[in-house]
Known about the structure:
- Helix content is 80%, strand content 0%.
- It has helices at 14-43, 47-71, 76-100, 113-122, 124-147, 150-187, 191-227, 236-255.
Amino acid sequence: KAGLDFSILKSLSKHEVNTIILLIFLSSLVNIFNNVFVSGIYFQGKQFIATNISYIFEFILKIAIILLGLLFKNLIYIAILFLVLTICKSLIYSYYCSKYNKYLRLSLKKVSLKIFLKLFKLSIGHSLEIIHNLIKHHGLVVLIGIFFNAQMVAYINTAKTLFYFFPFRIFNAFQTITIFEYAYLFGKKKIFEIKNYHTKHIFLILLLLSIFIISSLIIGPAFYGFWLNHRFDISYIFLLLLVLDASTQVLNNTITVVLK
């Protein structure tokens, strides 16, 4: 099938749409406070704890979204789940932050404009990357919402969730693990081993990406339809663009991982 069926959203009332937006907004606010807790954990050299918590909850969320999509036809359950998991993650972050953080204290009296400007300059590259991702993903959703409708927004988001964000997060989790190995080799001044490890890393990712692209094109449309009870039918061209975009981003992160 090449056509689009948007009947999954026809049963949503205005009240349900507003409720979903409110739940997502509240989840975003909680995530802002999570960054404070994560900074406290990172400060004590416990990055692996924050990373593990993040990926565990991401995995649970993605699997739960798939299951809820199979069991229910109302998107409000997914929004509720998103808020609940975000709050649970925040509680766990706060626990580990308080457990390991012995020196950091929030104080407005110690705010320094000079240090702020210095940190801002150092983080320009990272900030530009965040802005790029915001425009690429969230900005696209806003534009689609303006020029099309909510059904098209849902179609784009569900497809990107399954064929872009989900595999990207899985590959990114693997990339995060390799950073510790690169850091260990760099600390030991083993430059030759770093080059050898990096080459093997790239070839492994290329192999996995090849499997991902082929499997997505073969069984992706059927699985996508099954996930959404055949309410949407994804276009092969759109599917190909998504998997190629995700694969390009993963490969780029693999090549540049040594710079981190």
